[in-house]
Amino acid sequence: MDIVRQESQTAHLCPRGHVATICIRTFKGRRDVLVHLFRPDWTAEAEGYLWPELVREEPVNEPGAGRGNSRAVVLESFTREEMDQIVAYLATRYADRLTRISVNSLEFPVPGGLLPLSSMPEGKDIGRIRFEIVPRYPLPFSVHGLYDLSQHKPMAPDSSQS
Predict the structure, then answer these.
(1) Full 3-state SS string of 85-100
(2) Distance (Å, rounded) from C-alpha 6 to C-alpha 32?
(3) With bands split at pLDDT 50, 70 and 90, how would you rate the model's confidence at 158?
(4) Strand stretches in the chain, DSSP E
(5) Residue 14: what pLDDT?
């Protein structure tokens, strides 16, 4: 399993801003499924950030304005300490199931109108992994992962089984 970190070249303007994607070797009949990690619970934290420095809000009359919630995208991200805990947990618990953990930093200010991962509806192909419901989950905060199976080809049937 590879762990790839790509840190921001600029200083973080808030403690949040670290995001991660994991690649699961096989998942629900698909190979190399990308799962985007996010914090599902952040409502109490929305106050106190300098939002004009963190999010480039689009004027109301601009195309695409008001479609997303870029503030929620920032709030769904992790602190560096949380990200270190997540990587350590995943690398230990799921080392044989993951091919890669990719960690990146948001570049501030983030564009306005982004859709937060938590707003994506679950359905036939889009779903969530709720890591905190796994037995013996050790982290003091919840982590969810969003995947879209339609982005990954089904595993080829085993040619030895005809």
Answers:
(1) HHHHHHHHHCCCCEEE
(2) 20
(3) low
(4) 2-6, 18-27, 30-38, 55-56, 98-105, 110-111, 126-130, 144-148
(5) 85
Position of tokens 């953990």?
101
The one-letter amino acid code at 64 reads: G
Which token pair is 97?
Answer: 């199931």
Nearest to 108 by CA among 8, 39, 26: 8
Q: What angle do CA 64, 33, 111 make, to 5 degrees?
A: 20
Mean pLDDT of 25-52: 89
Distance CA 119, CA 69 (A): 9
What does the angle CA 57 – CA 41 – CA 29 come to, to the nearest 5 degrees?
100
> Count of CB atoms within 10 A of residue 124's CB?
7
**pLDDT at residue 160, rounded to an integer:** 40
pTM of the predicted protein model:
0.87
What pLDDT, in 10s, does the model give residues 13-34? Answer: 788 999 999 999 999 999 999 9
Give residues with Cβ within 8 angstroms of 54, minimum separation 6. Answer: 13, 14, 71, 74, 108, 109, 110
Q: How far apart are CA 22 and CA 34, in angstroms?
A: 6
CA–CA gap between residue 45 and residue 78 (Å, rounded) = 12
In whole angstroms, how far apart are CA 132 and each of 27, 39, 43, 56, 84?
A: 18, 11, 18, 32, 17
